[in-house]
Write a structure and sequence with these properties.
Layout (H helix, E strand, L loop, with lengths): L6 E3 L2 E3 L6 E5 L8 H14 L3 E6 L2 H4 L21 H8 L6 H10 L3 E6 L2 H9 L5 E3 L7 H8 L5 E4 L5 H13 L5 E6 L14 H9 L2 E6 L5 H8 L4 E5 L17 H18 L8 H6 L5 E4 L14 E4 L10 H4 L21
Parallel strand pairs: 3-4, 3-10, 4-5, 6-7, 7-8, 8-9, 9-10
Antiparallel strand pairs: 1-2, 11-12
Helix pairs in contact: 1-4, 1-10, 6-7, 9-10
Length: 352
Amino acid sequence: MKNREVIDIGGFQIGKENSVFIIAELSANHNGSLQNALDTIDAAKEAGADAIKLQTYTADTITLNARTDDFKLKQGTIWDGKYLYDLYREAYTPWEWHKQLFDRARARGLVCFSSPFDNTAVDLLESLDAPAYKIASFEITDIPLIEYVASKNKPVIISTGIAEREDIELAIEACKRMGNNRIILLKCTSSYPAPIEEANMSMIPDLAARYGVLSGLSDHTMGITVPVVATTLGARVIEKHFILDRAIGGPDASFSLNKEEFAQMVRAVREAEVAVGRVDYSLTDKQKKGKDFSRSLYAIGDIKPGDVFSAENIRSVRPGFGLHPKYYKEIIGTTAKRSILFGEPLKTEDLD
């Protein structure tokens, strides 16, 4: 299946050459302060992000206020011991902030969109003219939600953190059932923080080739190594949690990059995407000049007309202004037609 070439999100052409779409994930990193959220958007722009992403839910739209063991975190996460309801009540981004956050992002030239967690969140985001939607890793199995998101005919970015192949295929089929083929799959490791040895970046080109979509990375590892590796493997989207200062605290602070670190990541990704380049066996003008320092055939002693060319009087040496070394065996044993001085290049006229 042929990969989709370009998907437009808020004017950013994802899939064009050298166009990795870099998303700063706000998540809970406002820690309950609207001003922190607004300042984070400003800082994300200054750090080089292309987009800021929110999460649109309330504790009541994402879980139940149930105090049973099912609803208590105990999977070895940094949030173990908390009830889901309490975690999401602490972490959510108030819906009444959303318009101000979208407006601030647009004023700063950032694409702004969100991960909705139920249909009412989608409706809110539609009212704000969100240019795309993100399906979070743990929602990839919520086929009714994916169908509703896809029905809005906006690009759908899907994280695959907890997904097996069937989960991915069901999610893609849900989008296509709604007539939406603008799908981007993100490799994601749903650990917080994620061990680098579980990053499995080889999945990025496989997702693209297997499902005929653009692919990228939603990263929870520490540092910037994994986003750079992802870029070299063809990631067209990089998403990373962003925070003004980890001292602010909050549920996601420990695995988020601050402004300086995020800016370093952006620089490294931009350098990596340029370094990857394209398959091209032609040489630039600068590279062609470099051929001056390649090998060619030169006289290593004075040669008179009638002398026989041999290893004693010609050799392949630098620079490259003489006869190509491929002619060495052809010329050995033939007779010189002219005088050639030590250090003089052999020429085409010296061939029989």
